[in-house]
Structure formats: structure tokens, C-alpha cells
Amino acid sequence: MKAYVDKETCIGCALCPTISPDIFSMEDDGKAVAIDDQIPEDVVADAQDAEEQCPVAAITVD
Ligand code: F3S
């Protein structure tokens, strides 16, 4: 599985790196970014949590 952040939609609330720090981080532009690699099996649930809880639905995990 991979994770993506739609930077146009992200409002920089910083919730995703709090929920799933292995996958998401904040960039200098104040928006979140997801790692480029496949999501490790043991943190898929965290990444999906972040996807569900992002207030503007900017995250896709598939
Ligand atoms: Fe942005 Fe949503 Fe994360 S608003 S910082 S992608 S939780």
C-alpha cells in the first residue's frame, strides 16, 4: 500500500504526522507529505487512521 497527500487540499493541521509519524511529515511549506515507499505492514493501520481523521480528506491510502 502507498499513501498520498493532496497538497492543494491539505490545510496543514499536522494531525497526520501525529497519528502516523512513520508515514507522514510536515514540509517547509506547511503541508504534509507521505513517504514515497510502500507502507510497512505494521503501520498500515496508523496510516489508514490518518486518512480517516484528516479534517479535509487530503489523504489517500491504497
Ligand atoms: Fe494536512 Fe490532513 Fe495531514 S490537513 S497535515 S493532510 S491530517
What are the main properties of this structure?
Alpha-Beta Plaits; alpha+beta; two-stranded antiparallel ribbon; 4 strands; 62 residues; 2 helices
Average of per-residue pLDDT values: 97
SSE order, one letter for each helix or strand = EHEEHE
Percent helix, as a range, is: 10-25%
- Small molecules in complex: FE3-S4 cluster
Widest sheet: strand ordering? 1-4
Count of separate structural domains? 1
Low-confidence stretches: none
Secondary structure tally: strands: 4
Task: Give the strand content.
Answer: 15-25%
Protein structure class: alpha+beta
| Total number of helices | 2
Radius of gyration over all CA atoms, rounded: 10 Å
General description of the model:
The protein is α+β, with helices and mostly antiparallel strands. It has a single domain, classed as 2-Layer Sandwich (Alpha-Beta Plaits), CATH 3.30.70. 24% of the residues lie in helices and 19% in strands. The protein has 2 helices and 4 strands. The strands form 2 sheets. It has a two-stranded antiparallel ribbon with strand order 1-4. The chain has a two-stranded antiparallel sheet with strand order 2-3. The radius of gyration is 10 Å and the shape is globular. The termini are close together. The relative contact order is 0.35. The chain binds FE3-S4 cluster. Keywords: Electron transport, Iron, Iron-sulfur, Metal-binding, Transport. It comes from Haloplasma contractile SSD-17B. Ferredoxins are iron-sulfur proteins that transfer electrons in a wide variety of metabolic reactions. It holds the Pfam family Fer4_15. InterPro entries: 3Fe4S_ferredoxin, 4Fe4S_Fe-S-bd, Fe-S_cluster_ET.
